[in-house]
C-alpha cells in the first residue's frame, strides 16, 4: 500500500505545486532524513513516499516548507512568519494499509487528516 501526501493551497484554491517536503523516520527526538522533494503540478509527489511493501511500522515526520512556498508565490508575509515549516508527526501501526497524509494550508492556518 505505502505512504503518500498531497498539499492544497487554500489561499489560492489549488494544489501547492513546487512546495518543498521532507520525510523523516523518527525515534523519540532523533530524526533520520529519508527523502526530500518538490511537489508536482498537482501538489503531489511523483511516486509514493514508500511503495507497497517498503513502509515499516513506526513513527515518521513530514516537514512542509509553507513560508518558502508562499513567498515564492509572491505572498507578502510578516517577519517572522506565522507559519514557517509545518511538521506533521504521525505513526504507522499497520504497514499493510495505505497511509495518505494530506495538508490543506494557507499562510495562517493548516489542517490534516488521514486520507485514503
Descriptors:
116 residues, mainly beta, Immunoglobulin-like, 4-stranded mixed β-sheet, 4-stranded antiparallel β-sheet, 1 helix, 47% strand
Provide a descriptive summary of the structure in words.
- Helix content is 6%, strand content 47%.
- By secondary structure, it is mainly beta.
- It has a single domain, classed as Immunoglobulin-like, CATH 2.60.40.
- It has a 4-stranded mixed β-sheet, with no helix packed on it. The chain has a 4-stranded antiparallel β-sheet with strand order 4-3-5-6.
- The longest helix is centred in the middle third of the chain and has 7 residues, at 66-72.
- The radius of gyration is 14 Å and the shape is globular.
- It starts with a strand and ends with a strand.
- The mean pLDDT is 95.
Mean pLDDT: 95
Low-confidence stretches: none
CATH C-level class: Mainly Beta
Strand residue content: over 45%
For the secondary structure, the number of strands is 8
CA-atom Rg in angstroms:
14 Å
The spatial strand order of the largest sheet comes to 2-1-7-8
Assembly state (oligomeric)? single chain
Amino acid at each position: 500500500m505505502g505512504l503518500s501526501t498531497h498539499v492544497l493551497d487554500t489561499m489560492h484554491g489549488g494544489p501547492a505545486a513546487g512546495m518543498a517536503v521532507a520525510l523523516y523516520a523518527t525515534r523519540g527526538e532523533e530524526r533520520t532524513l529519508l527523502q526530500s522533494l518538490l511537489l508536482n503540478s498537482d501538489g503531489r509527489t511523483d511516486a509514493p513516499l514508500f511503495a507497497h511493501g517498503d513502509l515499516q511500522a513506526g513513527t515518521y515526520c513530514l516537514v512542509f516548507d509553507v513560508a518558502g512556498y508562499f513567498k515564492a508565490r509572491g505572498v507578502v508575509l510578516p517577519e517572522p512568519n506565522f507559519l514557517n515549516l509545518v511538521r506533521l508527526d504521525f505513526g504507522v501501526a499497520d504497514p499493510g494499509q495505505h497511509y495518505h497524509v494530506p495538508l490543506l494550508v494557507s499562510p495562517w492556518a493548516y489542517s490534516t487528516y488521514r486520507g485514503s
